[in-house]
Design a protein that fits this description.
By secondary structure, the chain is mainly beta. It has strands at 2-5, 10-15, 22-23, 28-34, 37-42, 47-52, 59-60, 65-69. The protein has one domain: RNA polymerase II/Efflux pump adaptor protein, barrel-sandwich hybrid domain (OB fold (Dihydrolipoamide Acetyltransferase, E2P), Beta Barrel), CATH 2.40.50. It contains no helices and 8 strands. The strands form 2 sheets. Strands 1-8-6-3 form a 4-stranded antiparallel beta sheet, with no helix packed on it. A 4-stranded antiparallel beta sheet has the order 5-4-2-7, with no helix packed on it. The N and C termini lie close together (4 Å).
Length: 70
Amino acid sequence: MSEILAPMGGKVIEVKVKPGDAVSEGDEVVILEAMKMELPVVAEASGTVKEVNANNGDTVEAEGVLITFE
């Protein structure tokens, strides 16, 4: 099981996946807004989304778990 972590604190603008979705390495899974910039968060490995821990509009901390996949 793998996790996708927030690279920095910020606001979740868009969650692009839901549980059960297949993701490939390099796919954008979340868009964060930090320091007035949009920051795409990408999957570092391929797998199936097990759990989404962030919703649109949520504020997340650096290193917070956004997505869990297997």
